[in-house]
Amino acid sequence: MTRRPYIVGNWKMHGTRAMLSEARAIDRAAQRHMKVEVALAPPYTLIHPIHREAEQIAVGAQDCHHEDGGAHTGDISAAMVADAGASFVILGHSERRQDHGETDALVRAKAGAAFAAGLRVIMCCGESLQTRESGGAVAFVRAQLAASLPPADQLPAEVADRLCIAYEPIWAIGTGVAATTDDISEMHGEIRALLVELLGADHGAEVRILYGGSVKPDNAHAIFAVPEVGGALVGGASLTADSFMGIALAASDPLES
Ligand code: PGA
């Protein structure tokens, strides 16, 4: 089955209620691009207001805790974000791994909690510039992903509907310099092979692999033409409806972009 391209906006720590008009504009535009699945991961405080109004787009969280509840001041559980209207969660983003010391084991535990709460998971992976320059990018990403995903027997049965991978080289995030299409092609091919190893041929072939890192309307067309790119995780360019939907348009119909 060919799944629709999946274009996900990661608003990071941007957005107060003043941004709701932008989310509305994105939702309206998404209704005109039904060949693409459009989703937004705003800060926690905007999950419910965006979910309440959205007619087309899915709303997700940028993280969740690995436990169901308890004495964890400032944290939020998978069930809480689901209750607020989130249908998915981004996990293992490099900013969480770097800023909050999240290990592969912790990210794996969070994925287990998210699946148990009925959420879809976008599992991020990606190497540093130093790792890429030393020639170790593929080995690093394979190991990171294998250790961050729950074991196959703990994944939901309909895993291709519940799991996406986002390959986000750290050096490409927020820098304006996306990975080359050759690098994306090589890494997505490696990730696909790993997924087939881990999940078996059927499921492993179907899980979508998104690219993230300085995706913009003007490079989206070339990135979406790369084999095994099933969509994009977009940071900076998701903050306005114009640029975000420019990316969705490139995914919707390559000829129109
Ligand atoms: P960027 O961020 O598009 O601003 O590079 C991508 C991400 O971190 O998900």
Structural class based on helices, strands and sheet pairing: alpha/beta
* CATH C-level: Alpha Beta
Radius of gyration: 17 Å
Q: Write down the domain tally.
A: 1
Return the average pLDDT rounded to an integer.
96
The main pleated sheet reads as: 8 strands, parallel, barrel
CA-based shape: globular
- Can you tell me the CATH topology? TIM Barrel
The kinds of small molecule bound in this structure are:
2-phosphoglycolic acid
Report the helical percentage.
40-55%
Describe it for me?
- With 257 residues, this protein is α/β, with parallel strands linked by helices.
- The chain has one domain (6-252): Aldolase class I (TIM Barrel).
- The protein contains 12 helices and 8 strands.
- The chain has helices at residues 20-30, 44-53, 78-84, 94-99, 104-116, 129-133, 137-148, 159-162, 181-199, 201-206, 217-224, 241-252, and strands spanning 6-10, 37-41, 58-61, 88-91, 120-125, 163-167, 208-212, 231-234.
- The protein has an 8-stranded parallel β-barrel with strand order 1-2-3-4-5-6-7-8, surrounded by 7 helices.
- Helix 5 packs across helix 7 (137-148) and helix 7 (137-148) packs parallel to helix 9 (181-199).
- The longest helix has 19 residues, at 181-199.
- 2-phosphoglycolic acid binds at residues 10, 168, 173-174, 212-215, 233-237.
- Residues 10, 168, 173-174, 212-215, 233-237 line the site of 2-phosphoglycolic acid.
